[in-house]
Amino acid sequence: MPFFLTREQKQSTFWLALWLAAALLLYTLGPILSPFIAAAILAYMLNGAVDRLARARLGRRRLPRVLAVSLVLLAFCIAVVALFLTVVPVLRAEIPLLQAKIPAFFTWLDSYVAPWLAGHGIHVRLDSAGLRDLLQQQVAASGDDLWTSVLAKVRVGGSAVLGWIATLTLVPVVLFYLLLDWHQLVARIGGAIPRRWAPQATGMALEADALLAQYLRGQLLVMIVLAVYYSAALAILGLDVALPVGVLTGILGFVPYLGFGLGMLLALVAAVLQFPGWVGLAWVVAIYTAGQLIESFILTPRLVGERIGLHPLAVIFALMAFGELFGFAGVLLALPVSAVLMVGFRHMRAHYLRSSFYNA
Q1: Pairwise CA distance, residues 302 & 310, whole Å
Q2: Mean pLDDT estimate for the chain
Q3: How far apart are CA 334 and CA 336, in angstroms?
Q4: Residue 207 and residue 311: Cα distance in Å, rounded?
């Protein structure tokens, strides 16, 4: 018996193939989509502030949306610059002092670490002169291959820097236009959904939006708690730069491991410059280790996971799974994406419980 597709089945097959081709094209263009994806995420986060400003009244007239978008973007850029200016003075103050400590550090290495290495059959001088000789020997041994490798890395690094500059330049432009036309874009996306699926898709989108709002509020609470904890703990330790380093660690806490790593590095450098011996370094390591444990096993599961309906174990699993599959970007997007997936899972579960397969 010949197999014929109905007219509706042909149309469904055509549009499904077209959407799959579009998805494949977007996947192929992935490297150039980064600024657009970043701008879309920022637009989703900032659109609420733009809407509130646009509803404000200047006399009898409402504030034009283009002006509201400009004010929100200006405030966002000022916040980013303020964050940058929090880090730069600390680095500018600490790096020259650290350079002055380097000779004493090499002397300590040669006095304590070199004898330990010699006991294991490794004879090397770890003072500045010895390390310089070792570097010269390696350069002489590797010859032209080393310079070829270095030049290749410089070219790759230069391309990466140019890519970052282009991305940072493009993101604000794309963000401006997305915020300006946000509601029209959302309406067009909603209008493209097949009408038979529109009510269910709209309901799922509203649920996902509510969960993401809860996630952002929970993440903001985590950042505030971490900023207070690190600032207070480093101040009790007596660190001179406790406040800027603690606040920076908390603010960058929304990027997993970035706030922790950068804050701990700055605190360790400050401890080396300020405290004699290794006691200060040990206390800094203890403070940041405790902070990371508190964030990973208490704050994030309780303040973020519970708000979006994820069990603490599910939060930990999501962070590990997305990190394994997608690397650093996966860790960054693990919880918001999991919140959206939870909405789909709930609807699938409800459909399964109503199905004849389950109830037969």
Answers
A1: 9
A2: 78
A3: 6
A4: 18
